[in-house]
Amino acid sequence: xxxxxxxAQYSVVGxxxxxxxxxxxxxxxxxxxxxxxxxxxKGVLERIEIRLVADVGEDLNLETTFFISEEWTGPTVLGFSxxxxxxxxxxxxxxxxxxxxxxIFFGSVVGN
Length: 112
Hints:
Layout: E1 3-4, E2 11-12, H1 15-21, E3 31-36, E4 39-52, E5 60-68, E6 77-78, H2 80-83, E7 86-91, E8 103-108
Parallel strand pairs: 1-6, 2-5
Antiparallel strand pairs: 3-4, 4-5, 7-8
């Protein structure tokens, strides 16, 4: 799960994913500071490959820029650096608002 934030310039690796990445992750970028709703935090910008897993249809693989910081204790955030690389639609009433919470439809920007 991830929080969608079209107002965030970059996507941010959440605390749980950072814990898994930190065992093998070697930062290659310069340390920068980013202002968040939780205050100023330090981290690096890295290009990483992600996969959005589909319940129905095909998964979507992307290479995108994430802000990675051990100081971030929030969820994974998909910001504009990721959202700009995909087509996406939200339908809160699909297929039935009483039965399910809705769907997020997504696909690749290229090749369609």
